[in-house]
Amino acid sequence: MVRAFISWMSVATVFLSSGGITVTTNATGAPPCDLLIEAGLGDRVRFPSDPEFELRIQSYWALDTRRRPWCLFMPHNATEVSMGLVALLQGTDNVHRGAGDWHIAVRGGGHTLGHTNNIEDGVTIDLFYLNETTYDPATNLASVMPGSLWREVYPVLHTYGVVVAGGRDGGVGVPGILLGGGSNYYMGEHGFGCDTVRNYEVVLADGSIVDANEDEHRELWRALKGGGINFGIVTRFDMEAIPDIPLSYGMRTMPGNASGQFVDAVVDYTDIQQQAFPKDALIALIFSLPGVEVLATAEVNTAGVLNSPGFDHFARIPQLTPFTPVVTNLYALAAVTSLPGGSWSLIETLAFKTSRQMLNYVVERNRQLVADVGLAIGPASFSSNLIYQALPSFFADISEDQGGNMFADTLGGHNAVLCTIELMVTTTQRDHAVASAMFRQFAGDIRSYFVAIGVDHPLVYLNYADAV
Q: What InterPro entries does the entry give (predicted)?
């Protein structure tokens, strides 16, 4: 199905340099791992010889992030996260230098690209065992832990009749979505996922465990709302819950030669329809292979309204297949909207002010990229997604009404489109490297063009940003 082509990336990591940290005499050949053992955390450490180590590495979404650190540290609670950070960053008695330059990465769901949630030279803190979800009806807060995937969170909340403004792809992890921003189906009414976080439980670099919210550590609370994980390791997200009303969901498919009408519909939706129909949510996608191009939309209404008039412009485009939306709950939808991993992946995120000229240029330049990559590595070696999402200016007002976030001020005053380009290579690392050079040139051309025509936008959206 076309929905299998859609992926939404998450950013779920910190990359802390520990060059110069003092360490004890090593017993395993990996001094930082020895520090964890000496701190009494040996049963939470996994080495490459341990079966669970390889299972966790193979569970990373993209092949290019399946790196092998010296060890994995797999804490079970915030206290153990704190103990581990203290051990790694401060050392123990009878210390000496000797580990050289090493690093710490932190993993949530494992969807982030680049070197941000796994590392070869150092320790990866894997939060897999921090995976509980609870709900307090007295406060209407859902407490979600960072080791969970959204397809694990929603069924628990469904039993209470509530949901949260979390990820749309059920296989994506919790922390990357919420710390990078959090596009979701409820944005027209509730804003980004990070806007609905009322409290973060955070382990700071000195090992202290604090609550960050509107009343305590307010600056940290705001910084974590879309600012990434460089401020600490979040061990619990307390989110405002939303009634779990069944929503309508449908995938529309259209021929590639209708891209002009498709772009017109995206602009119309961004500038007019999203605010007129705030319960609607849209993901507009162009899936490409050499010689094949399919236009698609995921159309959602969070009140369960079928065929919402907010999508009428898309309904007027010729269809490849009948449009048959369904009414379902988010927990069921998230269970079937996960993109399989196992590819060498490239991603770029770009934002620009609403412009038909700009959107059409990206479509044409993407066609050229697909053709060029196909000639270079073979047409059966990859696939490409070009995704447009609306960023109308009123999203900024919703965010500010809930205490603000780290990027809302870039959205006010003008409507914009968030453009995400993904290229997934299924063959070899060499093919990935060849495609990567062409992909970077493509992204540079896009940036140069939107500056040249005056529609550039300051937002770099962390959820879809590569480390490069």
A: FAD-bd_PCMH, FAD-bd_PCMH-like_sf, FAD-bd_PCMH_sub2, FAD-linked_Oxidoreductase, Oxid_FAD_bind_N
